[in-house]
Amino acid sequence: MPWKFNNKLIPIISVIAVLGVVFIAFKSCNNEAPQDPVMNFVPESPAPDADSPADTIKTLTANVGELISDVDALRQDHASLREERDDIEANIARQFASEFRNLRQERNLQTSTSDDWQRIQDQIDEISVALEALARDSVPDSYQIGNTNVAEIEGIETVVYPSYVWLNPLDTNISTSSFSGMNSKVNIDPVITIPINATLINSTALTALIGRVPVNGRVQDPMPFKVLTGDVNLAANGATIEGIEGMMWSGWAVGDWTLSCVSGYVDSVTFVFSDGTIHSIESAQSSGDSSQALGWISDPYGNPCIPGERKSNASSYLLQQSLLNTSMAASDTAAALETTQSLSPAGVIQSLVTGDASRYVLGNTLAGGLQSTSDWLTRRAEQEFDAVLLPAGHKVAIHVEQELQINYDREGRKLNHDQDH
């Protein structure tokens, strides 16, 4: 029984041994030479997305090209900025030179003006000193009356003031002088006195009263008028002034646009005697100063501003000017639509024609023509004025503001001197 067991185990052991020998032989054939167990460096695993050397070179080439383009653009900007800087410096230099020339001319002008004034003042001082010396040397025997010296110089009556000497003309027929308020007999006889606040009623306006409306509180070149004195002339306490009917007055008028009326002021009057002798009185100031006028006029009812008719062309001027301004604005807009504006690096707004050039030229041409027409209308309007008109022939009253002394001068001028021969 044991023998049989041993016989079955031998084949199995033999198969296992053969397999072992074959395995050992196979392993011995596939084994390589042993490697050096010591490593020179520790290997690292590459990055998952690392570029290859070719990709790196392409990237660097693209970056260098972009950098070169940026450098070229910066060079161009630098060159343009340098040119603009040179232009600005040149403009500033020209402006400074112009201002310097103007200041130098003004300084020279002021210096010359001050020198001229000083020279004139010196000459005036010299003349004053000479006149005072002449007055002292020429009047040995004089006596003081107020602020004047009266003396006889070689048989001629003389009035000497501190700054000048008055000599009566050699051909005068006046025996004694009435200079400086000294009473003396002359060839003048007082005839009529028109007192202050006298009222000359029933006067007639010989000319139309055209009252220019003031501009900025002033009336430039007021219109003159004439009034003829009527037959009813009142003084105070019911007294009348006889013999002055037909006396001729002249004055100037001022219009009031709000009240639609015209005010008149008289500044001269002429009276003619029956023998033709003329006597005229004028105010101290010229037309335009109502405080120095001889009097003022009113209507028969005492209104100092006489109602009249307004005259003005403001409506037509404003309509024409509005149409011109509207057309000019439309032309400018049409021209501007064909342009493009840009801001330069120097801060200057530049306008370039980017649209239809013909429309741009047409718009500017129309705008220029309309501007010229508008300027012409404006200059013409400056010569025109608003006024209030009162036709001639109206009855007015003259209110006297200064005492008027009508004297008969036997040696005065006459309308006709042939009648004396």
What does this entry look like structurally?
The chain has helices spanning 2-30, 53-138, 314-336, 357-382; strands at 142-145, 148-153, 156-160, 165-167, 188-194, 199-205, 209-212, 224-228, 232-234, 248-256, 261-272, 278-282, 295-298, 306-307, 309-311, 339-343, 349-353, 387-390, 395-400, 404-409. By secondary structure, it is of the alpha+beta class. Strands 6-8-10-11-13-19 form a 6-stranded antiparallel β-barrel. The relative contact order is 0.10. The model is unreliable at 1-5, 139-157, 159-164 and 174-185 (pLDDT under 50).
Secondary structure: elements and pairs:
Layout: H1 2-30, H2 53-138, E1 142-145, E2 148-153, E3 156-160, E4 165-167, E5 188-194, E6 199-205, E7 209-212, E8 224-228, E9 232-234, E10 248-256, E11 261-272, E12 278-282, E13 295-298, E14 306-307, E15 309-311, H3 314-336, E16 339-343, E17 349-353, H4 357-382, E18 387-390, E19 395-400, E20 404-409
Antiparallel strand pairs: 1-2, 2-3, 3-4, 5-20, 6-8, 6-9, 6-19, 7-18, 8-10, 10-11, 11-12, 11-13, 11-14, 13-19, 15-18, 16-17
Summarize the structure.
With 421 residues, this protein is α+β, with helices and mostly antiparallel strands. The chain is built from four helices and 20 strands.
List keywords for this structure.
4 domains, Lipocalin, alpha+beta, six-stranded antiparallel barrel, disordered N terminus, four-stranded antiparallel β-sheet
Distance between the termini: 215 Å
What is the percentage of strand-forming residues? 15-25%
Which radius of gyration do the C-alpha atoms yield? Answer: 57 Å
Which shape, going by the Cα principal axes?
Answer: elongated
Say how many strands there are: 20
Please give the oligomerization state of what you see: single chain
**Structural class by SSE content:** alpha+beta
